[in-house]
Amino acid sequence: MGVVSAVRCRRAATVWLLSLTLAVPATAGCGILADDRPATQAASGPTPAAAAVVTRTAGPDAYERSGRPGNLRLVLPGADTAGPYPLVIALHSLFHDGGEAAGWGLDKLAKTAGFALVSPDGIDGSWNAGTCCDRAANASVDDVGWLHALIQHLESNYPIDPARVVIIGLSNGGMMAYRYACEHPEDLAGIAVVAGSLQQLGCRPNAPVTVVSVHGGKDGHVPGAGTPWQPALGTPITSTEQSLAPFRAADRCETPTHPGDVTAAGQDGAPRLSPTIGTSGAAVTPAQIRAVLAAVTPQAQPTAASGGPTTGPGAGGTAAPAPSSTTAASTTPSFTLLTVDPATSPADAVRTESTCATGTRVVDYYLPDVDHGWPPATGPGAFDTASVLWQLLSTARAHAASTGR
């Protein structure tokens, strides 16, 4: 391994996997140690209309001056991938490091879909996402400023498209993605949060941004319904609905109560035969539908092969009995859940999305049979998370910030 020259910094497509030394370099340069093994060619992505403007700083930039210890793992697209290309920043969960992202399926996708993937380390395995988590939050580490400098550093040294930068985070990393989108939405085309929550108080994004949430119904660590206090993290947990609310407002999204806003989806994230999860004379909210799903007994609600509840109308479907829970009945409208044939229309997720006036998207996937963590790729509760997230984020573009909030 050796220090990459300024010329090779610009020739990003010649390198696959790199680790970044975070000490301030002695001379001007990108300060990257490279693995010089030959790279495997990858399928080229679409060529953007605009060419990248690659610049160099006169000396160490804010990121290089940070002196922050740790490793930065960088996977670049193949040599035949035309730049500028998107950048995906993968933020690990609490008490892990950037190496955790190797198990998410993004590395392979970066090579085939044609984007750069960077997986940095948080301080002592933590990110300061606001009220969480651990040392980063307790010491008020400026992770927002550091990530902002990292993005600028990579855009200066590689053919990154500034309009196509996204953050994907798991748990504490997802909380950090929310916080960054609150404070610098203009930097981002979008974010994806897996098993995370918004822990930044007073979040008011001043630019629209695409947001994708994936949350397991069995997650007791960062529950999708939120909790007044999570002892393990020392903070209240914001619900998924409340976490998405500031972004729905910034994106000018309609309330997701119209027919078709809530759909049954399979492992690929795509809607199944059902246009809606339930039928009713009045529109129902995702929270109300979830309450009914939780209250329906196994005998009343069939289970798909994946282990998740099966909902939505399909060929030969029959109506499921209404929930017997007094609490659920008193807080949800009267509507009927319909069953489907799991062989022809498996429903592994509840997908919520409404129309947003800005052209951005806010999409929520609720996986009834999944616990805390990155959803499994196979077995009960399987979900093709990496592909689903990239399918939604790949078409997103950054928006300029408004002058006032």
Automatic annotation (TrEMBL):
The keyword Signal applies. GO terms for molecular function: hydrolase activity. Residues 147-223 form the Phospholipase/carboxylesterase/thioesterase domain. It holds the Pfam family Abhydrolase_2. Gene3D superfamilies: alpha/beta hydrolase (3.40.50.1820). Residues 318-331 have a biased composition (Low complexity). InterPro entries: AB_hydrolase_fold, Plant_Biomass_Hydrol_Est, PLipase/COase/thioEstase. Residues 1-28 form the signal peptide. The keyword Metal-binding does not apply. Residues 252-280, 300-331 are annotated as: Disordered. Keywords: Hydrolase, Signal. SUPFAM superfamilies: alpha/beta-Hydrolases. It comes from the Bacteria. PANTHER family: BLL1128 PROTEIN, UNNAMED PRODUCT-RELATED. This is Hydrolase.
